[in-house]
Specification:
Blueprint: H1 2-28, H2 34-46, H3 50-69, H4 78-95, H5 104-128, H6 135-145, H7 151-173, H8 182-205
Helix pairs in contact: 1-4, 1-5, 2-3, 2-7, 3-4, 3-6, 5-8, 6-7
Length: 213
Amino acid sequence: MKENVLRLIFYFGGFFITAAGITTILRSGLGAGAWDTVTNNLSVLADITLGTASMSINLTILVMILIYRKNPKFLFTVVPILTIGLFIDLWDLVIYGSYAPGNMGLRALFYMGGTVLLTGGLSLTIVSGFPAMVFDELTLMVMEFFNSESFFKSRLAIELFAIMLASVFGFSAGIGFGAVNVGSFILALILPPIMARELDFLRMHLPFEDIRT
């Protein structure tokens, strides 16, 4: 019972921290993660909140997975999709509000701090053992569909597609590339090794009997 409570704390706490990371990186203006750039640019194009845009994108991907897999178990993914969308709006509209870092030093600090928050939140969510976000399952689906054995290549293709989609949304909204910047490509390179280290640390120090990685 105590372990299950701890897992739930990690699960929803991870979403809260992940949302903080996403919005903090976006506030830096130096480039966000691939799918977060889609979220930002879609929110501008459709004139909706970041959280609503996030939920719309993730629910669309979930529908694709459900159609392909024909397995209702993936419906549980609705929980993280809705939760993280609400937390993104909490950070963006309430906690940060109209604040934006002005000089390059503060922007760099937001970018680096947001990266730490993002990877930390995602790692906590993963080790909780509960359903995570849809992108890992999307990657596996793409691997099967194109008969590919490379998780890395399939994930890279998905990330590049996201950046192209974000660019289309951005130019359609009149903001150019929008949240797509050099920092987006840096994140694509540094997030996996940072998360790998964090997951190794959590595996060694948490009392959970089984930790999903």
